[in-house]
Give the backbone structure.
Amino acid sequence: MAKGSARTYRRIGALRSAEEFIQYLHSIDPAVPCDQQTLSAADGSPLAWPCRIGNRIVGNRFCIQPMEGWDGTPDGRPTEKTLRRWAHFGQSGAKLIWGGEAAAVRHDGRANPNQLCYRPENADALAQLLETLVQAHRNRFGPNADRDLLVGLQLTHSGRFSRPNQFDRPEPKIVYHHPLLDRRVGIQPDDNSAVLSDGEIAGLVEDFVRAAEAAQKAGFHFVDIKHCHGYLGHEFLSAYDRPGPYGGDFTGRTRFLRETIQAVRAACPRLMIGVRLSMFDFPPFIPDPARTGVGKLGPGIPQKFPTPYPGFGCDRYNPLQIDLSEPIRLVRMLRDELRVELVNLTAGSPYYNPHIQRPAMYPPSDGYQPPEDPLVGCIRQLRAAWQIKQAAPETPMVGSAYTYFQDFLPHVAQAVVRAGWIDFVGLGRMVLAYWDLPADVLQGRRIAANRLCRTLSDCTTAPRQGLPSGCYPLDPYYKNSSEAVRLQEAKAALHKKLS
């Protein structure tokens, strides 16, 4: 694959036709499937194909990805903003809703003080989320439209990125001391107070079970045991140096996931189980200090890393290279031994290598300029997901990193599903701005270019400033809000700091 560079990559919105986009895409990787023409459901679009998951039929191949909300109440319940977003998920036309939202299984696992959080007294709020989504789906698509709708709830503990009480005060819980990431959240190398004990991990499994029981009672079809993006579940997978039963070899590093799935399965027999997994991870990136200034962040460069590096899905002695041997082994184990019904594939972390996790033209406030053409990052994830799909073809899989394709997202999505690269096309930040995109594509309507996410990253910059996450450039609800004024003030202050 030929890599692009910050000096040569082109803006997707400036490409005038699918033919021009395909030419550009194939200059990077000629093997990536992409169609010149998109089809409606009536014309037989692969995106309209049904898919069996467990004992249910899911009506099409669009999936709404789970996103981390910053607009719940201090005690973890949804607000008007939260319910508005879930209604949009229902109106989107996607038939697989992967959690819609990351819900912490207990207070100390919240990534921010306004993240949804399970408490026994919040159980009715979970039902309210689901009812809001399903009713919005019925209102738009018909009274029986939810018969082929599959909705889950993502269960999470944020681990070293926990900030349960103040958005700017880390209160990390970690699996092991990381040579680079500890300092980012204020952990000293000799301070073991944040390291979870084996007994605390056993208690955490019970917290996942209690939250799953509430999701089952609320009517969700599945729960996701989150293992991605640098959060606690993901960190277990790279705990090579942790002593005891939850670290070391592959069996130890996957023990928490196995125990949690088995416990949820026993307690919640009506629930299906999914796992959102970071297929690979790279070391943290930082702005190049030699090229930072004049009001902007520098392009990202990897921090100097020790070897062997504690990364999952990468070569430990060359961690900028992907090694999918363990991720493939894990996905096969999930299917064959644990009967997990569906897997969602992503990569990296939004905290320390966002260009790997969600390729974008513009960085969040605490990020860096893209060190490569963002299309390279999209293709990297597409190819890795394809390799895992080939290795475990029976498992229904969702792919990520499609938003940056923008105007040509339907062209790529349709082609990769037809080619068998993936089963479902996952949409995250795109639906914050343009929640109708799946319905528009399937009904053969022209894409609303003025609603497409252009990866300006305000939906990430705002939470970094303690503001609700939404599409401030395109959604009038946020664009005309008082929070938008505060966001612009925060961005101006950052610009001044860098100048």
Q: What stands out?
A: The chain has one domain: 38-454. Residues 225 and 462 are 27 Å apart (CA to CA). Residues 198-218 form the longest helix (21 residues). The chain is about 35% helix and 10% strand.
